[in-house]
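Q: what sequence does this backbone want?
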């Protein structure tokens, strides 16, 4: 660091990440340089919001009665634009931390993201990593920042940089609290010296900034400012909702939906909530955490408020503003505040109702929602019992009869066969495995539809949820399936091709071969095309629990199983015809058992299985 004694200025070196970032911003081409003004206005607005919060508990500060405002001045002669605010200001250490050290606010992450995109237009990702101030170098040869902190004893500080390897700090001359940023424009950025361009940019990007923005010495406010969420819903146009969403989230896609609230009782509440376009973390968003932006009487008191919605609705973005929330609520007592509990109850109910209406009235849009956010609904079912009925109503599933369509549980019930009282489902690794499971054969034969659950979270849901309305949810792998009475009677009248003595002898061979790997061998009438299947013993941990442990990669001793065989299957009948000691019969029994394991998503010893299959093939070819 070099120091000039005459001017009391000091020179500081940018860190490597900072120099790399500045190089990108100064020398790259951007399709939309306008965002520099959006970023500087947003920073100014944040500075005023922080000052307002400070005013709640501290009256001993500089210029306590100054109007909160942002002013933009154009000087065509000097080719400069100045953006000033009456916000909280900065002292020298804060200037170094917030401006001189970009790495503090995410330069490394920005550079990584910039590399991954492979695009020349990075304008949308600038705000995400707290490097928005530096977007001004896209249009500036050099930048000056003059700031004075709200603290009475602090002096003004002057920061100067041309985007090179260093920046200069010296004493500033500003008397009032706040910050002004002076941009010395590049020759190719002269368009920003025109008032109409500044108005155009503010209209697009900063119209809803909650503080007045003035241009030059004109006291005409050029932004709308009135918080859109405090307007009556019927007075807001759809385009205005979209514009606010774009400005608020920096996601320039169409949101899936929005919910505008204006409530007087039991608590006075305003809110504007959005379902984003995607569940994926938005690279182009400045949102660093989940939670709603909370205002109390128009003063922002918390940016990422997680206590206003249950965690499974954390994908919702938006603003909540209440007249009944105390301004001085501390973060420690936040959750216990009665008003917060009331707001959470209201918002949760309204959001779930909104989703239910979307499901009923716009099938296509709800399907888009489900593909993006269905996991969160299932998470709610797996984690809490508070909203079971509402979430079950929102649940969408696929079934073996409609494998390409998303259907509700209500639609499943409407298509039940005669005498069907229960909702049947299968848990599997994927749809193909589910469709080919031997457990489904009797259901296919009787045209009973079965829900396919293939998401990793599904076993956790089904460990909690076992009923929808008056209908039990039943796993098709259950030992004793209670199928509709008429069909069971028909199945029980099927002719058995093997006599009981032959069957008893064959089951003895099965038991001798498999020893203690199965608890019991028995016949079943619930198989059609498969020779065998495995079912759990009564009292064994459910398949849901077994799947959950496997998904969590936790040690779990598989429970003993019952092997059920299909006495009418050709393989079983041919095995029964083999008499005496025969190694091929033992190999086939081993393979049937392991086939049943595979069908249930349990991987046997593949090396042993390959060796056994080769032996069976060799024996078959000899005959």
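A:
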């Amino acid at each position: 660091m070099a120091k000039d004694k005459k001017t009391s200025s000091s020179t500081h070196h940018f860190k490597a990440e900072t120099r790399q970032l500045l190089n990108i911003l100064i020398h790259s081409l951007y399709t939309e340089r306008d965002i520099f003004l959006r970023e500087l206005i947003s920073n100014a607005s944040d500075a005023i919001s922080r000052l307002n919060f400070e005013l709640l508990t501290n009256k001993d500060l500089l210029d306590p009665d100054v109007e909160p405002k942002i002013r933009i001045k154009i000087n065509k002669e000097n080719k400069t634009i100045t953006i000033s605010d009456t916000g909280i200001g900065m002292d020298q250490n804060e200037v170094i931390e917030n401006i001189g050290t970009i790495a503090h606010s995410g330069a490394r992450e920005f550079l990584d993201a910039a590399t991954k995109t492979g695009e020349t237009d990075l304008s949308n990702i600038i705000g995400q990593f707290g490097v928005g101030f530096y977007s001004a170098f896209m249009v500036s040869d050099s930048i000056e920042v003059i700031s004075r902190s709200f603290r009475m004893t602090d002096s003004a500080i002057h920061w100067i940089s041309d985007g090179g390897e260093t920046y200069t700090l010296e004493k500033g001359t500003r008397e009032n609290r706040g910050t002004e940023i002076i941009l010395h424009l590049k020759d190719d950025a002269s368009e920003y010296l025109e008032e109409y361009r500044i108005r155009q940019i503010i209209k697009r990007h900063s119209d809803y900034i909650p503080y007045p923005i003035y241009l030059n010495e004109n006291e005409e406010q050029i932004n709308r400012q009135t918080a859109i969420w405090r307007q009556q819903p019927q007075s807001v146009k759809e385009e205005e909702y979209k514009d606010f969403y774009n400005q608020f989230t920096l996601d320039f896609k169409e949101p899936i939906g929005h919910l505008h609230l204006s409530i007087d009782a039991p608590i006075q509440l305003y809110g504007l909530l959005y379902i984003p376009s995607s569940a994926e973390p938005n690279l182009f968003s400045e949102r660093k955490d989940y939670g709603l932006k909370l205002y109390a009487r128009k003063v922002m008191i918390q940016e990422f408020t997680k206590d206003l919605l249950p965690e499974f609705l954390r994908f919702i973005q938006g603003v909540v503003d209440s007249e009944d929330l105390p301004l001085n609520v501390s973060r420690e007592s936040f959750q216990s505040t009665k008003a917060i509990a009331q707001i959470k109850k209201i918002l949760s109910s309204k959001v779930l109702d909104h989703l239910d209406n979307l499901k009923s009235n716009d099938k296509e849009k709800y399907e888009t929602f489900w593909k993006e956010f269905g996991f969160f609904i299932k998470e709610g079912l797996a984690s809490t019992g508070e909203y079971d009925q509402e979430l079950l109503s929102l649940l969408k599933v696929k079934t073996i009869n409609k494998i390409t369509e998303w259907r509700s549980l209500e639609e499943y019930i409407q298509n039940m066969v005669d005498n069907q009282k229960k909702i049947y489902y299968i848990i599997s690794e994927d749809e193909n495995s589910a469709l080919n499971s031997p457990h489904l054969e009797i259901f296919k034969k009787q045209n009973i539809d079965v829900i396919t659950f293939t998401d990793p979270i599904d076993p956790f849901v089904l460990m909690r949820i076992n009923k929808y309305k008056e209908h039990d949810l039943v796993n098709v792998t259950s030992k004793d399936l209670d199928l509709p009475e008429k069909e069971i009677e028909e199945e029980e009248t099927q002719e058995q091709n093997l006599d009981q003595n032959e069957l008893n002898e064959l089951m003895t061979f099965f038991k001798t071969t498999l020893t203690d790997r199965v608890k019991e061998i028995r016949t079943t009438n619930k198989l059609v095309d498969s020779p065998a299947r495995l079912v759990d013993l009564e009292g064994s941990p459910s398949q849901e629990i077994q799947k959950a442990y496997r998904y969590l990669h936790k040690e779990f001793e598989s429970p003993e199983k019952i092997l059920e065989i299909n006495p009418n299957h050709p393989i079983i009948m041919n095995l029964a015809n083999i008499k005496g000691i025969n190694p091929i019969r033992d190999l086939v029994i081993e393979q049937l058992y392991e086939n049943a394991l595979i069908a249930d998503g349990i991987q046997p010893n593949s090396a042993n299985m390959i060796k056994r299959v080769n032996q069976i093939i060799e024996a078959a070819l000899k005959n």
